[in-house]
Amino acid sequence: MGESVTVIATDEIETRQSNAVVDLLRTVPGVTFARNGGIGTSTGVSIRGAEADQTVALIDGIRLNDPSSPGGGFNFGNLLTGNIARIEVVRGSQSVIWGSQAIGGVVNMITRAPTDTWEVNARAEGGWRDTYQAVANVSGRAGPVAASFGAGYFTTDGLSAFSEARGGTERDGYENIGANGKLLIDLAANIAIDLRGFYSRGETDIDGFPAPLFAFADTLEVAKTEEFVGYAGINATFLDGRFRNRLAFTYTDTDRDNIDRTAATPVNTFAGLGRNERIEYQGIFTASDRLEAVFGAETETSRFSTSSFGAAPSTARVGIDSVYAQLSGAPVRGLRLTGGVRHDDHDTFGGATTFAGSGVFTPNGGATTIRASYGEGFKAPTLFQLRSNFGNLALQPERSKSYDVGVVQRFLDGRLELGATYFRRDTQNQIDFVSCFQNSAAICTGRPSGTYDNIRRTRASGVEATVTMTPVDALTFRAQYSLIDTENRDTGLRLARRPEQTVSALIDYRWAFGLETGATIAHVGDSFDNAANTRRLDGHVLVDLRASYPVTETVELYGRVENLFDEVYETIFRYGTAGRAAYVGVRLRL
After folding, report:
1. Distance (Å, whole) CA 438 – CA 566
2. What is the Cα gyration radius of the chain?
3. What is the pLDDT of residue 351?
4. pTM exceeds 0.90, yes or no
5. CA 480 to chain centre
6. pLDDT given at position 383
7. Which string of DSSP letters, residue by residue, matches 80-140?
8. Residue 552 has what pLDDT?
9. Where are the alpha helices (DSSP H) in 6-101?
10. Measuring CA to CA, which residue among 340, 331, 236 is closest to residue 288?
11. How far is it, in rounded angstroms, from Cα 378 to Cα 54?
């Protein structure tokens, strides 16, 4: 394919032993994140310098984005690796297939699939600051029914969200319960029922701005997030498998509450409920080895309700209907071209049409791969931006145009692979909050607390370089370098919390007697915490070590040390991050 794609497969997820999905994403080219403290706190993922709410997040192909959040983005804070078996990251504007919000790119997490034989995967670990985790998954087949079900539990005493390096002393703990399930029921040789579900309930302590100083400090506040994702569909294939069809109903529900426990009687300071309901059809017709068409239609209804300190809630709903088509062909040997178009019709702002095209060419059977892509993206104004107390019904969608061109060269029968990509994205009509305090602008009439408006144009461009080496079968080495130059084109300043450079390397070695050892080194460069570029966040380097040893064919012991050199750093000003930490665990495969 012509787009920039990175896949983190099961083997890598297990080898790296990370608890949080974002800790795996930090070594993906072009990807950065910012987090309000330790694991479980609010976390936004940026792809190639885009806003965090311009990233589409999916679990098993189902959108996770929360309609009740101001920007409609997904909070990665509660997303643990659990039973996730594969992560796919597509970089660049991808709205033709994925619709609204896919301006920066797409992150799709895939949980363990049903298997034809019965399998059990389980693990348990413990370590730093009373951190414990247990995860299990069972999969198999009985006649026409194939299933995969899993669950997980995570708890930690955590760290102070208000940076301990700045005086925070109260540990802000986190607890999460999760579950996942897939069920495939064969009704006939070419027809199957497809059921999927994902559940997460997290509770994390947070810090705030207590009286009388109203300065950021330790508080007794807690944030609760409960997420449920459901999918019910039918798959049908015809013409000897050349015509594949999928019709499905998907449901996403995100319930959030912030509670202040300072007083004898806890106070609910915020309550938010976001819900998406979608009916979608997709067809894939393979005319020949050289020609394939993908087409589909979707209708989605989003609802939200938000309330602060028990006040009457703000509620609203909006619908969007979409159709799309994409054609992929191989006119000559070694060359594949893809083009697509999408049209979305929104209840409030009307229609939006996006286009995309890509090409990939290999003149020598895959030793050299040259690719290029162009994509357009759009992001519909969120329900909060349109219809909350700060809403503006005149908002227009954010629009983007992006392109990239790259080359991958393989040497030594694939033992050495070098890659380089140049990218650029221009975004207009970006929506920002407008403060109406002592502001006499017309848009502030009747809106004393502020509102939203299309006021920004941004640009991001840069280079991504990758190296993969396998000098001998037992040794693997992977590295990436990303240069991400972001700019607010209205002010000429860099975008906030977008490091200009990232570098990472992973090295793993399998010893003859079964021991596996490895390390991850990740450098994140300097950035600015604010749009005015007056508050700098210093760069940092993190080093993680890991090891695992198979005691038997079914039992494996593993352990890791994170942040080996106890680096003190921040991804958001004044919010803490974890210091040196060690964990040990056991893994079972049956």
Report:
1. 45
2. 24
3. 85
4. yes
5. 19
6. 87
7. B-TTEEEEEEEES--HHHH-TTTTSEEEEEEEPPP-SS-EEEEEEEEETTTEEEEEEEEEE
8. 95
9. 10-16, 21-25, 95-98
10. 331
11. 9
Contact between 477 and 507 (Cβ < 8 Å) = yes
The tokens for 202 are: 């997290």
Determine contact, residues 372/423, Cβ cutoff 8 Å.
no
> What contacts 280, CB < 8 A, 6 or more positions away?
246, 247, 248, 250, 296, 297, 298, 299
Token pair listed for 293? 């068409």
Q: Is 469 within 8 Å of 489 (Cβ atoms)? A: no
Average pLDDT, the chain: 93
- Two tokens, residue 259: 């509670």
Tell me how far the alpha carbon of residue 481 is from its chain's centroid: 20
Contact (CB, 8 A) for 61 and 249: no
Least confident of 88-97, 475-484, 542-551: 88-97
| C-alpha separations of 139 from 115, 118, 276, 561 in Å | 6, 6, 29, 31
CA angle 584–588–590, rounded 5-degree value: 170
Strand, helix or coil for residue 454: strand
Residue 273, classed as helix, strand or coil, is strand
Q: What is the pLDDT of residue 404?
A: 96
**How far is 196 from 248, CA to CA, in rounded Å?**
11
Report in angstroms the alpha-carbon separations of 443 from 164, 383, 387: 42, 18, 15
Q: How far apart (Å, rounded) are the C-alpha atoms in residues 231 and 454?
A: 34
Question: How far, CA to CA in Å, does 6 sit from each of 368, 521, 525?
Answer: 18, 18, 22
Residues for the chain: how many in total? Answer: 590
- How far is 452 from 466, CA to CA, in rounded Å? 39
Q: Please give the Cα distance from 48 to 246 (Å, whole number).
A: 32
Query: CB-based burial of residue 34 (10 Å sphere; 0-12 exposed, 13-18 middle, 19+ buried)?
Result: buried
Backbone angles phi, psi at 21, to 5 degrees: -60, -40
- Of 457, 465, 463, 520, whose CA–CA distance to 490 is shortest? 457
Of 222, 213, 218, the closest CA to residue 169 belongs to 218
DSSP 321-350: EEEEEEEEE-SSTTEEEEEEEEEEEETTTE
